Structures are given as structure tokens and as C-alpha cells.
Amino acid sequence: MLKPGDLFDLGKTEHAALFEGCEFAWEALKNIEAFLKARLRPALHNHCEGVAYIGEKVFIGEGTLVEDGAMIKGPAIIGRNCQIRHNAYIRDQVIIGDGCVIGNSCEIKNSLIFNEAAVPHFNYVGDSILGWKAHLGAGVKISNVKLVPGTVRVQFEGKEFDTGLRKFGALLGDEAEIGCNAVLNPGTIIGRRSVIYPNTNWRGVLGANKVVKNKGVQEIVENRD
Asked: Which pLDDT tens digit goes with each residue over 132-164?
């Protein structure tokens, strides 16, 4: 559950080299900055609808649409046939694969997004890795900083792993589904094809092919007006 191959099909990204030498999948987050410095060759093959800001250290592949109001600061690599929708905010150290959706009012920083993943509506993704076809429902937030000082630690099978990272959001395995308005706390790891129900506040490691249900109690009363 903690190794790159446990969570991700590395054939579903052109940037698998990020994981070279990584025992744990989160270690790739430390490699993004150097990876971009070594491999980024700025070029814009996209088309725009309206006016967008695109920084000097940005590569965008063919067939990608960048909509009005988007800001792509860079350094960033964005793949082919993506949709970067209205008012998306792509900050520094971001790698986005082919066929991805980055939606309206979404913010992304220091993250890797595998091919065909979707971050479509009002999402925050910081210091995270989203696997192939991972999907965030509207309003999902990935928290990447603890409220108390110290590095993010991961608890798994009775052991504690210090990631050494002050900022670490989540690892979402291939085809993971996160329901609307869920919050994923720092150090979250979600296995392949697992589902988090809407409005869930989740912390920790979830295995593959699991479903987390939010069974909040609801009360029905008479309308006396």
C-alpha cells in the first residue's frame, strides 16, 4: 500500500522517472522540482478560449484547451488533450498528464496527476499524487499541512512512518473516487478503485477496493410554518 507500484500503474504517465529510487510513493513529491528543472522545455501547443495567463516555464501539449481566466504560473508540464477550465489556478511544480480535467476554481501546487485524472470543480490539490483516472467530486479539499508543527506521519499496519515532509497531502491510487465536499487530511493514502463518500473527513490509509460510507444521522421534523 505504500510503494509506488501498490497504488499506480506507472505506464499511465510519461513521468514515471519521478519514482526512480523511491521506496515509498510519497518520496516522489520531493523529486518534482528537480525533475522539472532537468526536463522542462517550455512550449505552448494548446489553444485558448478567452484570455489566460501562462508563465514562461510552462509546457502544454497538443489538443489541450485553456479557458478564460486560467492562471498557469509554472514551472509546469501539462499533457495532451486536457481541459484547463475557467479560473483554474496551477501554481509552481505541477505535472499533469494527458486527457486530464482541471476545472473551474481549482488550485494545484507541487503535485503529479496521472493521465485521465479529473479535478473538475472547486478543488484544492497540494503536495499530492493522483493516479490514473482518479476523480475528485466537487468541493473536495486535500489538506497538505498539519495544524501542529512537525512532519507528516503515516500509520500503517501498526507502524508509524515519518515521511520527512512538512507538506504532504494525499496519494490517490488509480481509479480512486472521492465524493463531493470530502476532506482528505495530510498523509492520506487511498488504494486503487476505492471510494470515499461525500462529506467524509478522512485521515489515514485505505486499502484497495474499499468504500468509506458517511452515515451521519439525519433528523426529519414537521414544518410548522
From this structure: 999 999 999 999 999 999 999 999 999 999 999
d(CA 60, CA 57): 10
Distance (Å, whole) CA 114 – CA 31: 16
CA angle (154 as vertex; 113, 212 as ends), nearest 5: 70
Distance CA 170, CA 130 (A): 8
The answer to whether 179 and 199 have CB atoms below 8 angstroms apart is yes
Cis geometry, peptide bond prior to residue 75 (ω within 30 degrees of 0): yes
- Residue 165 above 80 pLDDT? yes
pTM of the prediction?
0.95
Domains of the chain: 4-212 (2.160.10.10)
| Closest by Cα among 220, 137, 174, 224 to 5 | 174
Q: Which residues contact 46 (CB under 8 A, 6 or more apart)?
A: 60, 61, 62, 63, 64, 65, 66, 78, 84
| Predicted confidence (pLDDT) per residue in 59-71, tens digit | 999 999 999 999 9
Contacts of residue 19, Cβ cutoff 8 Å, sequence gap at least 6: 4, 8, 10, 25, 27, 28
Q: Is 19 exposed, middle or buried (0-12, 13-18, 19+ CB in 10 A)?
A: buried
